[in-house]
Amino acid sequence: MDSPQSSIIELDRLTIPDFSEIECENFKKKMIIPYFKDIYRDLASRSDNKSAGINKVTIIDYCNLPGILAERFFSLLDDNKDEYIDMKEFIYVLFRIYYSTFDEQVKLVFEIYDFDCDGFITKEDVRIILSYIPILREDDGENGVREGTFSQSGGGNDEFSTRVKIQEEICELLDLVFKDKDKINRKEFQKINETISSDMLVTLLTLLRDKLP
């Protein structure tokens, strides 16, 4: 497995300042990697086979992602497909989410959408994933939440009319970005996010960062 690529990015829970390259590497080695290792050891201790790594049930309980998103996240982590997540797999994916280049983040999100791992994604692939992302609609009260933010419980306003409206918005987005194409590859996906709409990328990355440490 290739080593994670790195860049200086700001996150909700982790801000990496404008360090020099040497300072940045030291920060990763002394702060970030030990932190991720601590999380891994805690999760592995709950597994049914601690020597093999973290099992699927533990990962799904930990990430608290809705529906099929939890399955897709586990598949992303389980690089060797042995049904357990070892330390290298775990840290590598967390680095990709929190501490990687834009190109690498595009690749990561594309892999989540790419159910059959054939190097292409379809409208239906994207629609399924986006349909599971919890959305809270703007409320008239004092505690109203802006559209596009996520609830901590993983659920949103599930009134039928709201869900129908969300599906319509997803379909409109897909028509905009796919146009007349049945499927797109990763380079096309990246170009779409750079020039037309970044919703497919940002929405999923935001949810992952909201749910993970």
What does this structure look like?
This protein has 213 residues and is mainly α. The chain folds into two domains: 1-100, Recoverin, domain 1; 102-213, Recoverin, domain 1 (Orthogonal Bundle). Helices cover 55% and strands 5% of the residues. The protein has nine helices and four strands. It has helices at residues 21-44, 56-63, 68-77, 87-98, 102-113, 123-131, 160-178, 186-195, 199-211; strands at residues 54-55, 84-85, 120-122, 183-185. The strands form two sheets. It has a two-stranded antiparallel sheet with strand order 1-2. A two-stranded antiparallel sheet has the order 3-4. The protein is globular.
The CATH topology of the largest domain corresponds to Recoverin, domain 1
Strand order of the largest sheet: 1-2
Main β sheet profile: 2 strands, antiparallel
- CATH architecture label of the largest domain: Orthogonal Bundle
The SSE order reads HEHHEHHEHHEHH
Structural class: mainly alpha
CA-CA gap between termini? 23 Å
Task: Give the CA-based shape.
Answer: globular
CATH superfamily name of the largest domain? Answer: EF-hand
CATH class wording of the largest domain:
Mainly Alpha
- Using DSSP, what is the number of strands? 4
Number of helices: 9
Summed up, the domain count is 2
Question: Roughly what percent helix?
Answer: 40-55%
What ranges have pLDDT less than 50 throughout 5 or more consecutive residues?
1-19, 136-157
Strand content: under 5%
Gyration radius, in Å:
18 Å
Average pLDDT confidence is 82
